Fold this protein.
Amino acid sequence: MGQSLVRIENGRSRTAGALVFLSIAIMFVAPCVAQEKVRFPIGESSKTLSYGPLWIAAKMGFFEREALDVPIVTMRGSPLTIQALTADSISVANATVDTLISAYERGADITMIGGLINGLGLSMIGGKQYKTYADLRGTTIGTQTLTSGTGFALRLVLKVHGMEYPRDYKLLNIGGASDRYQALTSGQISSAPVGVPLDLVAKQQGFNIIGYFADDQPNFQFNVYIVRRSWAEKNRLLVVRFMKAMAATMRWMLDNSEAACAYLSKEMAISIEHCLYASEYNWKNRIWDRNADLNVEGVRTLIRITAEQGILKEPLPQPAKYIDSSYLKQALAEIGKK
């Protein structure tokens, strides 16, 4: 099912076209036979293109194939998403690794089971007078959170470039990517991290791409699927079905970028050109994984960095302490690992 899904070549009959679209409906919409549909809400913290696979899975039938009803609940930051998970308000939290480690070490019964954003798909955008990281010294920079997620990564990248918080700059907690971008365009802040492809939009509007986070932190597991251990053990088949849906979604998106962007461009209110640009960046830089797996070395990086914040002590734990890969392994075995 390649590009012909979005563009039927001239000369094909209407009957053939109808059969093609009928096959799509059967493949992606029809739920699993003899399975009762189960409500399975997932929480995430930003409706941007990097989170796009969640909306593809929900709106193009991948969850429905596994008989799952998956409302996507957008929350303000990973800490609130983890809180919702531990309160049983959601079945899966899509949140950052540093937040998971902090919560786990405080006694939370949680574990990560797969990855959605396996790297830092963020770029640093500067106002028209700010062209380098050095130009940002002494300015106010916009962020989503101060101590976790995007804010956590931002401080690490600025540290690579010789700047310490709060000595060398101020942080303004603004919110999501669109809010940060609006603050930048209004001159309220000097710069802000935004997800690809907002970097391309900013450049076209005369702003400066100062740098890409992945260049400074190539192994950084940003965002993972998190479940409550005891709940997941009792509901193993549901969790496996969820991971089957996500792995199938990732594989389909990799093989059908134009069809995926035909949908995502409308859902995320971006152009198809920008969507294709961002998708290529995410696959090339291993931001997305075709099996919905995570980057173990990226988790190790977060363990080391979290220790530097005083949350962990030597000897540092192995990534396996926070990971349960059994659900994804079972899911891949059922759909056939290719």
Observations:
- The chain has 15 helices and twelve strands.
- Residues 236-255 form the longest helix (20 residues).
- Confidence is low (pLDDT under 50) at residues 1-33.
